[in-house]
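anyone seen this seq b4? input:
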Amino acid sequence: MEKVKKIKLFFVGIIIVTIILITIGTIFFIRKINKPRNVVLPAISEAMAQGMVKENEIYIVRVANPDEFGTGGWYYIDGEEKIKMMLAEGNLSHELSDIFLDPDRNSFLVKGKINEELTQYNGCLTLDVESWYLIAPIKRDYGPREYRKEQRFFYPKDYLDVYDLEQVDYTPVEKQE
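predicted toks r here
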């Protein structure tokens, strides 16, 4: 009887030690993956972006779903309502690839001036973009393997990195003055 108790205790001890080691290994692995490396463009938090919004100058925008808005484009949210918007000069779609620009995938803080002429022509608010920021978390969709051979299982959710530059998913454009 005594021997059976010792064997049971021994196995319970091995199970507890194994669980502890797996937990420590998992925590180490997650921290190693999420450690910022080669940050190229950091994202800002949703709360920070909300605090920076200023009507007729700074908006939080998302890529519009063509089914919802017809031609696509962009939209911003005013209270509960989605309002169509166009981005003209400095459109951030010139710098980011489609992996970031699927409808309703990511939010962006854009700063610029309203282009009155294009606003009248387009029939919706049109903004000449001076600067923009990604809002965390950043979501990516690499598409099917046929489209893109290199797939990324783990990727940073609060910044763009050197990998995004190398894959031409982010191509910074010099501002013309």
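The chain has a mean pLDDT of 84. Residues 160 and 166 are 11 Å apart (CA to CA). kinda curious what u guys think
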